Amino acid sequence: MGSASKTMLVPILLICFLPVSGAVWGKEHVRGVVGRAITIDCHYEAKYRSHTKYWCQGWTRHCIVVLETNGQHGRNGRASITDNPARGIFTVTVEDLRSGDTGWYNCGITTSGYDPLFNIYLQVSDEPVSVPVLGLLSPANVPSVGGSVTMSCKSERGSLPIRYTWYENTLKISNNNLDLRCQYFKQQSHQYYCKASNNNGTESSEMVTVAVSNTGENCSYMVHFGNNEHKVTERMMTTPFASTVKRSNESQNDSTRSTCTECYTIWNVGRWLYFALLGICSISVSLFTSIRKGPIEPKPHSLP
After folding, report:
1. Is 264 a residue whose pLDDT tops 70?
2. Nearest-CA neighbor of 195 among 137, 130, 149, 138?
3. pLDDT exceeds 60 at position 180
4. CATH number of the domain at 133-238, out of 1.20.1070.10, 2.60.40.10, 3.90.550.10, 3.30.300.30?
5. Any idea which of 127-131, 178-182, 264-268 has the lowest mean pLDDT?
6. pTM attached to this predicted model
């Protein structure tokens, strides 16, 4: 084959294997983080609204179709696809990203001729955790009966899974969320902080300071973290509840003692009646036996 033929062959191969551009477009390079999800938008021209859209793995048009729209939606394992014809966008979402997901992909549209495709390179990498952000999960500034305030700790970035641990000074006290209750406080002042960690690093949160003040039946404490300050009041039910339990136990004991005394009295009376009946029966049996035998007659003397 001559050099001229080889020169002509290159454009032909490019036409056969390279995607048709212009009809579909989006970001050429996208980045994802291990364990998290990523959403990729593929735009298309209005004339393709009713066509089937697909997501395939590979650089050329011989890519392997991972999933396609079935009506307007489709799903395959960790990946899903949604079509929005009104906006001219179909969206691919991949959950629980893994390092092996890195590579070339195509947004494609099924047609009667050459399918319009758009190349996208997906880079999935590990990422250290960001400094965890603190927040309140339960409402503060309101009185609660036997309730508590729960604090959250969350890193917005970082490869999953992320582990969260709460500490008071250097003592580990809780995983995930932190419950603040008056009954847990042993001192007037407490300090807490949270650590977030994954396989790529560890970060600590800002300090949480709790100032406790007890006033009779109510327990109040101030929660400080960053520029936030929240007052929490718990209505203590320990004393009334203990009194109720004590009175209940005393009533139960009195009732038990009264019942036992009655039982003892009945048992004593029954025991003496039993002995009396035994005596009467014994005497009756002796009399009855004597009557049946009759008077004793003297024996006759033999003649000499």
Report:
1. no
2. 130
3. yes
4. 2.60.40.10
5. 264-268
6. 0.63
Tokens of 36: 């998290």
Task: Give how far Cα 226 sits from Cα of 135, 136, 290, Å.
Answer: 10, 13, 109
Instruction: Give the tens place of pLDDT for each residue, 54-88.
Output: 999 998 888 999 999 977 777 888 999 999 999 99
CA distances from 302 to 296, 299 (A): 19, 10
What phi and psi values does residue 7 have, to the nearest 5 degrees? -65, -35
Confidence at 261, pLDDT banded by 50, 70, 90: low
3-state secondary structure of 204: strand
Structure tokens at 240: 């009334």
151-156 LR contacts (CB < 8 Å, sep 24+): 151/177, 151/178, 151/180, 151/192, 151/208, 151/223, 151/225, 152/177, 153/177, 153/178, 153/194, 153/196, 153/205, 154/196, 155/129, 155/130, 155/131, 155/196, 155/203, 156/130
* Stretch(es) of the chain classified as CATH 2.60.40.10: 15-125, 133-238
- Residue 14 near residue 106, CB atoms below 8 Å: no
